[in-house]
Write a structure and sequence with these properties.
Distance between the termini of chain A: 74 Å
Radius of gyration of chain B: 20 Å
Structural class of chain B: mainly alpha
Helix content of chain A: 25-40%
Structural class of chain A: alpha/beta
CATH topology of the largest domain in chain A: Rossmann fold
Strand content of chain A: 15-25%
CATH superfamily of the largest domain in chain A: P-loop containing nucleotide triphosphate hydrolases
Number of strands of chain B: 2
CATH superfamily of chain B: ABC transporter involved in vitamin B12 uptake, BtuC
Number of helices of chain B: 15
Order of helices and strands of chain B: HHHHHEEHHHHHHHHHH
CATH architecture of chain B: Orthogonal Bundle
Number of helices of chain A: 16
Number of strands of chain A: 18
CATH architecture of the largest domain in chain A: 3-Layer(aba) Sandwich
Largest sheet of chain B: 2 strands, antiparallel
Oligomer: heterodimer
Helix content of chain B: over 70%
C-alpha cells in the first residue's frame, strides 16, 4: 500500500509546475511508413488523471499512434509533446520515465523468472530502481503476487498480460499506454483488467488504452478517441462519440443504441449493400415481433410495424431499430388514427406478416387491416400460432382471405428468402 | 527468495572458477613433458630466464600456449553470447558477421605474400576482419539504425564471397597452400608470447558486456520492447557488435578459425545458469576458456608428438556434452 501512496504523490507532485499543462499534447501529427500515410492531422490533448480509450477499425492507425506517443516512432509532421517537451528531445531512458507502454504482442522465449521480467521495467529508474517498490509489490497490486517465482515461459496468456502490465508499472511513469490489453483475455479477466486500470487511474495514473469492444469502451472510459482511416473521427465522452451515425460512418456497420438495466450498450448489424430487397410490414406485439424485426433488418429489408402500443416490447425494439410504426397510446385499444396509419404502412409493404401475437378486442383491428391488405392483393403470411391465441375469432378469416399460414417464424423467413431468390432470377 | 536466485548465481560463478582453475592447472602440468604442480609453482616464482629444461619448457612453450588457448576460448565464447542474444538466433556464432572470414583473407594474403612473420600476419588478419565488419555495417545501416537482420544476412553473404576469394588464392598459392589450409583449420601449435600479447588486447573487451548486462537482458524481449523500456538500443547494439567483432578478429588473427566454442559454450552455460547476463557472461567467459584449454591439452597429448587440430577436439568434446545437456533440459 505504501507503493500506491508513493505513486499517487509522485504523479500529483508533478502537477503544480504550470497552470494546467496538458500531460500529453498531440499537434497536427502525421506519420507515414515509407510512402504509405498512416496518420494525418491528429490533434488532441490529454490532461493528467484522464482515463481515455482509443477505438477504431483495424488498420486505422491506433497502434502507430501509441508508438508515436511513446516516441518509439518519429512523426513525419507535427509533434507529440509530453509534459510540454517534444518526444524527439527525450532520451529513451527519460521517455520511459514519463510514458510506459503495454504492447499488444509480447514474445520472450528465454527462460527468465517472472521476477526478472518485472524488474526489467525498473531499468529506466536507474540507481533508484528499488524506490518504486519491488516486483512482488507490483504484482500484488495486480492480485498476482503468487506468480513472482514462476518461469515466465510457463504462464498462460492472461498471466503474461498481467506480468507485462506489472513490468510497465515498474517504470512509474505518469502516462500508461495499453494496446488491446484485453484481446487475449476471457470475459472475467477482461472485466478484472479494466477494473484494475480504473483503480490505477484513481490512484493518479493517466491511462490511454486501445480496445476493440465498444461496449467496454462505453462502460469504462471517461473519454474516447475514435480513429478512422488515420484521422480523428471524434474525441469526447463515450455517449457523445459513439452515436450510431458515427459508428456507422467509421466501421461501416449499422449500430443500434439500447438502454437496458441502467446501462447503454450498442449492437451491430452488417451494413446493407445498397440494393432494396423490399418492404415488410409486421403485425405483432408483446415481444412476438422483436426477433423478426432484427432478422429482417439484418437481412436488408425495410421494415414497418403496427399497430403497437407505446412501451410495448416490440414498440421499443422497433424504435431502437428506427422502424416506421403505427403507434397507439399505452394499454389502449387501436384507435381510428393509428388504424389509418397502419393501413397506409401496409399499402406500401410488399409482404404483410402476422406473428403469433395474442389477439383480443384491443388489437382485432390489426388483423382486419391485414385482411384488407390481402383483399387488395398484398401477400399476407401468418404464423399459425396466431390462431391459437385468438380471443375474438377474427383470425379464422385469414386463410379464406388468401393468407398463407406457416408453422413458425423460420418458415416465414425461408419463404421470404425464396421470394427474394426468385425476384433476383427474374431480373435481367 | 531473491537471495535464493542470487546465491545459485554466485554458486555457479564459484563452481565455474573452480573448474576454470582446475583446467588451467591441468593444461599447464600435462604435456609431452609433465610438470608437477610443485615444480610449476617453483618455476612461476623463479620467473623466466631459468636454465633448467623444465623452466624453459614452462616459460617459453607451455605457459604462452595455455594462456593463448584460454584467451581465445574466452573471447570466442563471449562473442558468441553477444551475437546469439543480439540476433535472437540460437544458430549464430562469432563467425556469422563475416569478421572471421575477413581475418582469414588477411592472413591468407600474408602467407601468399610471404609476410607470414608474426606482426604482419596479425596486422593483416585484423585489417581483414575490420574491413569486412565495415562493409557489413554499411550494408545494414538505414536511417542511422543498424538493421540486425540485414547485418546477419550481409555477414553470411560476405563470408561466402570472401571464402571464394580465399579459394582462388589457394589455387594460385602453389607450395603455400599447405600453410593456408593449416592456418584456416586453427591451431595453437608453435604460438608464443607475441601472440599472447596480441590476444591480451581482447581482455578489456571481454568485460564490456558486463556493463551492458541489463540492456542485454531487456533486449531478449526484442528491440522494440527494449526501446519502450528506455534502453538506448542503437548505442547498445553499436557497442556490443563492435565488441564482438574485436573479440572475434583478435581470436582469429592469433589462432585461425576454431569452430564450435563460440556456438556451443553460450548454449551450455545458458542451460546451466539461465539467460540472465550478469551470470551468463562471466560463466561463459570462464567456461569457454576452460573448454578451449582442455581441447588444446588433448590436441597436443592424445597423439603426441603429432597434434590433432584443436578445432576438431573442441567439436569432439563439446558436441556430446551439448547433446546430453539438451536432452536433460535445464537443471
Amino acid at each position: 500500500m505504501a507503493g500506491e501512496r508513493e505513486l499517487t504523490s509522485a504523479a500529483t507532485g508533478e502537477l503544480p509546475k504550470a497552470a494546467s499543462p496538458a500531460l500529453l499534447s498531440v499537434r497536427e501529427l502525421a506519420f507515414a511508413y515509407d510512402e504509405r500515410p498512416v496518420l494525418r492531422r491528429i490533434s488532441f490533448d490529454l490532461q493528467a488523471g484522464e482515463f481515455v480509450g482509443i477505438v477504431g477499425p483495424n488498420g486505422s492507425g491506433k497502434s502507430t499512434l501509441l508508438d508515436l506517443v511513446d516516441g518509439v516512432l518519429r512523426p513525419s509532421a507535427g509533434e507529440v509533446c509530453v509534459n510540454g517537451k517534444p518526444t524527439r528531445e527525450y532520451r529513451r531512458r527519460d521517455m520511459a520515465r514519463e510514458v510506459a507502454l503495454v504492447p499488444q504482442h509480447f514474445t520472450l522465449e528465454f527462460d527468465l523468472s517472472v521476477r526478472e521480467v518485472v524488474e526489467m521495467g525498473a531499468y529506466c529508474r536507474g540507481k533508484d530502481a528499488h524506490s518504486g517498490g519491488d516486483a512482488e509489490l507490483t504484482l500484488a497490486r495486480l492480485g498476482v503476487a503468487a506468480l513472482v517465482e514462476r518461469r515466465f515461459t510457463e504462464l498462460s496468456g492472461g498471466e503474461k498480460q498481467l506480468v507485462v502490465l506489472a513490468q510497465a508499472l515498474m517504470q512509474r511513469a505518469q502516462l500508461l499506454l495499453l494496446d488491446e490489453p484485453a484481446s487475449a483475455l476471457d470475459v472475467s479477466h477482461q472485466l478484472r483488467l479494466f477494473d484494475l486500470l480504473q483503480q490505477l487511474n484513481r490512484d493518479g495514473l493517466t491511462v490511454l488504452c486501445i480496445l476493440h469492444d465498444l461496449n467496454l469502451a462505453i462502460h469504462y472510459f471517461d473519454k474516447l478517441l475514435v480513429l478512422s482511416d488515420g484521422e480523428v473521427a471524434a474525441f469526447g465522452p463515450p455517449d457523445e462519440v459513439l452515436r450510431p451515425e458515427i459508428v456507422e460512418a467509421v466501421y461501416g456497420v449499422r449500430a443500434y443504441l439500447h438502454k437496458h438495466a441502467g446501462r447503454t450498450y450498442l449492437t451491430f448489424s452488417p451494413r446493407l449493400r445498397g440494393e432494396r430487397l423490399g418492404r415488410v410490414h409486421l403485425v405483432c406485439g408483446g415481444g412476438t415481433g422483436a426477433g423478426l424485426m432484427r432478422e429482417l433488418v439484418d437481412a436488408g429489408y425495410d421494415v414497418s410495424a403496427g399497430v403497437l402500443n407505446a412501451l410495448d416490447t416490440d414498440e421499443e425494439t422497433g424504435s431502437e431499430l428506427g422502424l416506421s410504426m403505427a403507434v397507439e397510446a399505452p394499454f389502449s385499444p387501436v384507435g381510428d388514427e393509428a388504424h389509418a396509419h397502419n393501413l397506409e404502412l401496409m399499402r406500401a409493404a410488399d409482404v404483410v406478416m402476422v406473428t403469433a401475437v395474442p389477439v383480443s378486442h384491443g388489437n382485432e383491428r390489426n388483423i382486419r387491416a391485414a385482411l384488407e391488405a390481402a383483399a387488395a392483393g398484398t401477400p399476407v403470411w401468418a404464423v399459425r400460432g396466431v390462431l391459437d391465441n385468438d380471443f375474438t375469432g377474427v383470425t379464422a378469416e385469414l386463410e379464406p382471405a388468401g393468407a398463407r399460414l406457416f408453422a413458425d417464424e423460420a418458415g416465414v423467413l425461408a419463404a421470404l428468402r425464396e421470394r427474394a431468390r426468385r425476384a433476383s432470377l427474374t431480373q435481367p | 527468495m531473491t537471495s535464493g536466485a542470487r546465491t545459485s548465481g554466485r554458486l555457479g560463478v564459484a563452481l565455474a572458477v573452480v573448474i576454470f582453475a582446475a583446467c588451467l592447472l591441468a593444461s599447464l602440468a600435462l604435456g609431452p613433458v609433465s610438470l608437477s604442480p610443485l615444480k610449476l609453482a617453483h618455476y612461476l616464482m623463479a620467473g623466466p630466464g631459468g636454465s633448467a629444461p623444465g623452466s624453459i619448457i614452462f616459460w617459453q612453450i607451455r605457459l604462452p600456449r595455455v594462456l593463448l588457448a584460454f584467451l581465445v576460448g574466452a573471447a570466442l565464447s563471449v562473442a558468441g553470447v553477444i551475437l546469439q542474444d543480439l540476433f535472437l538466433n540460437p544458430l549464430t556464432d562469432p563467425y556469422v558477421t563475416g569478421v572471421s572470414s575477413g581475418a582469414a583473407l588477411g592472413a591468407t594474403f600474408g602467407i601468399v605474400l610471404h609476410l607470414a612473420e608474426l606482426p604482419w600476419m596479425t596486422i593483416l588478419a585484423l585489417i581483414g576482419g575490420f574491413a569486412t565488419l565495415a562493409v557489413v555495417w554499411i550494408a545494414a545501416r538505414r536511417r542511422g539504425k543498424i538493421d540486425i537482420y540485414v547485418l546477419l544476412l550481409a555477414g553470411v553473404t560476405i563470408s561466402y564471397l570472401v571464402t571464394a576469394v580465399i579459394a582462388v588464392l589457394m589455387i594460385r598459392a602453389g607450395e603455400d597452400m599447405d600453410a593456408i589450409v593449416y592456418w584456416l583449420l586453427g591451431s595453437f601449435s608453435g604460438r608464443s608470447w607475441p601472440e599472447v600479447k596480441v590476444a591480451l588486447f581482447a581482455l578489456p573487451f571481454m568485460i564490456v558486456p558486463l556493463f551492458f548486462a541489463k540492456e542485454m537482458d531487456i533486449l531478449l524481449q526484442g528491440e522494440k520492447r527494449a526501446l519502450e523500456l528506455g534502453v538506448d538500443v542503437e548505442r547498445a547494439k553499436r557497442v556490443l557488435l563492435v565488441t564482438a567483432a574485436v573479440l572475434t578478429a583478435v581470436a582469429v588473427s592469433v589462432s585461425g578459425i576454431i569452430g564450435f566454442v563460440g556456438l556451443v559454450v553460450p548454449h551450455i552455460v545458458r542451460l546451466l545458469v539461465g539467460p540472465s547476463h550478469m551470470r551468463l557472461v562471466p560463466i561463459a567467459l570462464l567456461g569457454g576458456a576452460a573448454l578451449m584449454g582442455i581441447a588444446d591439452l588433448l590436441s597436443r597429448t592424445m597423439l603426441a608428438p603429432a597434434e590433432i587440430p584443436v578445432g576438431v577436439v573442441t567439436t569432439f568434446v563439446g558436441a556430446p556434452l551439448f547433446v546430453y545437456l539438451l536432452r536433460r533440459g535445464r537443471a
